[in-house]
Amino acid sequence: MSRAVGIRQVAEHAGVSIGTVSNAINRPEMVSAKMLALVQATMDELGFVRNDLARQVRMGGGTTLGMIVLNVENPFFAALSNACEAAAEQNGFSVVLGSSSQVPEREDRYLDLFEGQRVEGLLVAPVDGVTDRMRKLHRHGMPFVLFDPDAAVPGFCTVAMDGEAGARLAVSHLLESGRNRLAFVGGPLHQVRDRWRGAVEEVGRHPGSTIRRIDTIDQNVQDGLAVGEAILREPPERRPDGIFAATDLIAIGIMQALLSAPGVRVPEDVALIGYDDISQASTAIVPLTTIRQPTAELARAALSLVLTEREEGVDHEHQHALLAPALVRRRSA
Amino acid sequence: MSRAVGIRQVAEHAGVSIGTVSNAINRPEMVSAKMLALVQATMDELGFVRNDLARQVRMGGGTTLGMIVLNVENPFFAALSNACEAAAEQNGFSVVLGSSSQVPEREDRYLDLFEGQRVEGLLVAPVDGVTDRMRKLHRHGMPFVLFDPDAAVPGFCTVAMDGEAGARLAVSHLLESGRNRLAFVGGPLHQVRDRWRGAVEEVGRHPGSTIRRIDTIDQNVQDGLAVGEAILREPPERRPDGIFAATDLIAIGIMQALLSAPGVRVPEDVALIGYDDISQASTAIVPLTTIRQPTAELARAALSLVLTEREEGVDHEHQHALLAPALVRRRSA
DNA sequence: ATACTTACATGAAACCTTTCAAAGCACAAG
DNA sequence: CTTGTGCTTTGAAAGGTTTCATGTAAGTAT
């Protein structure tokens, strides 16, 4: 059972001191050529790999960031986490990923895990806003960046798309194409409030047009399906003629429901516009017009903020990065 | 700067010994009621959280598993990693996720990271088969489970769908619906060899039917698009009348390309069948007939194997779990 | 009052590193 | 032969935890 080959085993086997082995690893220039060779030979003879945990305990401060997303299975977050991983790699950090699945308890579990693990910072898309747990963590010095569409979170750095601007783009596109009975569908409200706000604002600029909100509990295809079916049950003259969905997945669900009814056409009868530009959007039954979120830029901004906060510590001035969205015109609106 | 509050600070502040604090945390029954209360009060006054790294250094053996998938953005792997995380949670473990993006160097990087981190075991979908790096790691005692469709990997536990059976299901479905000029599209070959084998085998059972293979370099919508366009460039009488794609994403790409050409219908002119049953499959332009991979069962099997290997150690007899796939009939075939 | 349990608290060792002051050594200069 | 100098190597401490053999005090039996 040769398990547990540590720096000590290497030292013994090579007949040198522990300190020398450590130096050979971390400051090769401080060690004579033949020692270095000897130690290195011994190391890979024994198959030594440094125990990064112990190292971190000693040195304090590692190289790992924690990230909590709402749902890995949501393509937007898959893309975002991937982008963060790439951005972190460029800065010499790693990202470990957790998926809260929109469950506050799972979110808490990951916060605990990451805190115990002493990660260097946290990137989180909060299920339901900033919790006391997070505030405490942050106050105790944990660098923290929120992916929160609501930039007003006080005391935290946030990174987000400018959801209001995105919503305005979407809604004005609908209005300009002659729609005037709009519906906004999305939820939970907290996560989409800015989109809703922007939509309302834009509608306000166009007298004679109306918008109503239809809430969903999550943001996937199933929720959209349910909403679509509900809309179909309304008398045709009451149905919206333009729908802005807070998420592409929701939009796709709505589309599927609508198209399953005979005689309902998209976009002729109902124009539909989504949000995120996930890859599915372009391959939907009717290619989906949507608002693009530039995940790579989001990721870069988030990493830059979290690392800055790590450097500058408590006296850090919190920033709110708001990235500009873009309208992607396809067929559905 | 109250940073770094450890068990020692708690002990001092409460006026007890370090050992007592540790006992209060880990064996509360060995500590008198009032001590326990005192210590706990002190702990959350100071905001103490145990340093799991140090704990692991001392105790040896943590509670974290590493997982490397080919691409988080691929919905199948998103679902699989999610399922693994859930399964791990039930066994009191956590999973940290890495995405190799099919790049061997990134795969290696994660292997190194996880080894240094002393994870308790590894779940990996290998980019290009078992590498020396993996073999060495495994030989040094790292529990290892491969998500590899090729069950013949010697010396390793593997978990996979029975790709041959899945392919037979798919192909026989195509043949029974009257198609006989089939094409298999997928790649890299290593990752889909079993599907290809099963397809060939089934075709062999039906005299008069043929199948050819079209290789792709990756497994996403783009690859499918390219193949679809290539097929459209062939004269109609040479085109396949049934296509079995190694992946839903590829199938969706092909579908999109085919349907963009006027007069080509799915499934009337070309029947199309995918593999994985990702959520996108049901929301495609023509809902996609596909082979379902039961990710939850895959995950459970993988976890059970990796934990078993962890318990039983070197003398462990390696198992190959092969799960049965199912045909999901929708509209495309 | 003495001896013997019980129940709890303690301090030190251990885990695997890194770091740092001190020691060793060879060799040139005085 | 001593002293100084520069370069390597060493041993021990430290980092935050767990564990274990002792120590202590109170409680019980005689």
3D structure, described in words:
The structure is a homodimer of 333-residue chains. By secondary structure, the first copy, chain A, is an alpha/beta fold. The first copy, chain A, has three domains: 44 residues, 434 Repressor (Amino-terminal Domain) (Orthogonal Bundle); 128 residues, Response regulator (Rossmann fold, 3-Layer(aba) Sandwich); 130 residues, Response regulator (Rossmann fold, 3-Layer(aba) Sandwich). Chain A is built from 13 helices and twelve strands. Chain A has a six-stranded parallel beta sheet with strand order 2-1-3-4-5-11, sandwiched between helices. In chain A, strands 7-6-8-9 form a four-stranded parallel beta sheet. Chain A has a two-stranded antiparallel ribbon with strand order 10-12. In chain A, helix 2 crosses helix 3 and helix 5 packs across helix 13. Chains A and B meet through helix 4, helix 5, strand 2, helix 6 and helix 11 of A and helix 4, helix 5, strand 2, helix 6 and helix 11 of B. Chain A binds a DNA duplex (30 and 30 nucleotides) through helix 2 and helix 4.
Total beta strand runs of chain A? 12
User: Beta-sheet strand percentage of chain A?
Assistant: 15-25%
> In what order do the strands lie side by side in the largest sheet of chain A?
2-1-3-4-5-11
Tally of alpha and pi helices of chain A: 13
How would you describe the oligomerization state of the chains in this entry? homodimer
Mean pLDDT of chain A: 92
Kindly give the count of domains of chain A: 3
Helix-strand pattern of chain A: HHHHEHEHEHEEHEHEHEHEHEHEE
CATH topology of the largest domain in chain A: Rossmann fold
Largest interface: A-B, 47 and 47 residues
Structural class of chain A: alpha/beta
Residue windows where pLDDT falls under 50 for at least 5 positions of chain A: none
